[in-house]
Amino acid sequence: MTAQDRICIGAIQGAFGVKGEVRIKSFCADPAAIGDYGLLTNEDATMSFDLRIVGPIKNGFSARIKGVQYKDQADALNGTTLWIARDALPNLPDDEYYHSDLIGLDVFDTGGEKIGRVISVHDHGAGDILEISTPKTKSNVALLPFTKAAVPTIDLATKRIIADPPEGVF
Amino acid sequence: MSRSVWKGPFVDAYVLKKAAAVRESGRNNDVIKIWSRRSTILPQFVGLTFGVYNGQKHIPVNVSEDMIGQKFGEYSPTRTYYGHAADKKAKRK
């Protein structure tokens, strides 16, 4: 399984209390959802964690991990990132995409010429925006509105986006 | 203290001109580059896309009805935080 098949959804930030609970930081859109994905692994998938959220605390959650009973065991996990398989994410309706699926896709214009590559997805409250790394602008970055007009085709199988950038993007 | 009602909403004149020009041309998908973060979003801007300057680049802002009365700058943050993608979703409109 490659790194692209797995997604980082959180991290362990050390022990919480003295009874073996850990402090969890969630990267999920809904932070509490970190407990819904079943078995989590570390970055290289050599360890797995059966996590149960106990409750919210400042900057995250307290949780219990099966097999971790003492504070020093919990402290030893400090800094461990928590990963799930991409397949564990539920399917989405049409025209909805996971950021992790969009990041890394190559962007081509309607003529077939490569424009660049998606490096991140933003939402500042006025629609989603694709940030594209491209040599076509002075700053090497372009921001493309994530609309049907500007991004008519997304092909996740071939990892390509066909874009029709409106005037003013480049 | 809030702005007096008799003055009406503040909008830089060039923003109105640029928006009107794009409306007339019928190319509503074009990104209208503006530097005026202080301008109020008016009803005639709905459906247009503005590139609002954040000090480095122009952030595309698709204006919708529920944004009327707010300022352009509210949708173009000046500090960007790159978090983890995790299970976050984007919807193509």
From TrEMBL, chain A:
Superkingdom to which the source organism belongs: Bacteria
Main location: cytoplasm
Start and end residues of each Ribosome maturation factor RimM PRC barrel domain: 100-169
Keywords: Chaperone, Cytoplasm, Ribosome biogenesis, rRNA processing
GO cellular component, one term: cytoplasm
Pfam families for the chain: PRC_RimM, RimM
Subcellular location: Cytoplasm
One Gene Ontology MF term: ribosome binding
InterPro entries: PRC_barrel-like_sf, PRC_RimM, RimM, RimM_N, RimM_N_sf, Transl_B-barrel_sf
Any single GO BP term: ribosomal small subunit biogenesis
Domain annotation RimM N-terminal: ranges: 8-87
HAMAP family tied to this protein: Ribosome_mat_RimM
Swiss-Prot/TrEMBL domain comment: The PRC barrel domain binds ribosomal protein uS19.
Function according to Swiss-Prot or TrEMBL: An accessory protein needed during the final step in the assembly of 30S ribosomal subunit, possibly for assembly of the head region. Essential for efficient processing of 16S rRNA. May be needed both before and after RbfA during the maturation of 16S rRNA. It has affinity for free ribosomal 30S subunits but not for 70S ribosomes.
Family, similarity comment: Belongs to the RimM family.
Subunit structure: Binds ribosomal protein uS19.
Protein name: Ribosome maturation factor RimM
UniProtKB/TrEMBL annotation, chain B:
UniProt-listed GO biological process terms: ribosomal small subunit assembly; translation
GO molecular function terms noted in the UniProt entry: rRNA binding; structural constituent of ribosome
Cellular-component GO terms for this entry: cytoplasm; small ribosomal subunit
Gene3D superfamilies: 30s Ribosomal Protein S19, Chain A (3.30.860.10)
The keyword RNA-binding belongs to this UniProt entry's keyword annotation: yes
PROSITE patterns tied to this protein: RIBOSOMAL_S19 (PS00323)
InterPro entries xref list: Ribosomal_uS19, Ribosomal_uS19_bac-type, Ribosomal_uS19_CS, Ribosomal_uS19_SF
One Pfam family matching this protein: Ribosomal_S19
Superkingdom per UniProt: Bacteria
PANTHER family (alphabetical): RIBOSOMAL PROTEIN S19P FAMILY MEMBER, SMALL RIBOSOMAL SUBUNIT PROTEIN US19M
Physiological role: Protein S19 forms a complex with S13 that binds strongly to the 16S ribosomal RNA.
Similarity field: Belongs to the universal ribosomal protein uS19 family.
The protein's name: Small ribosomal subunit protein uS19
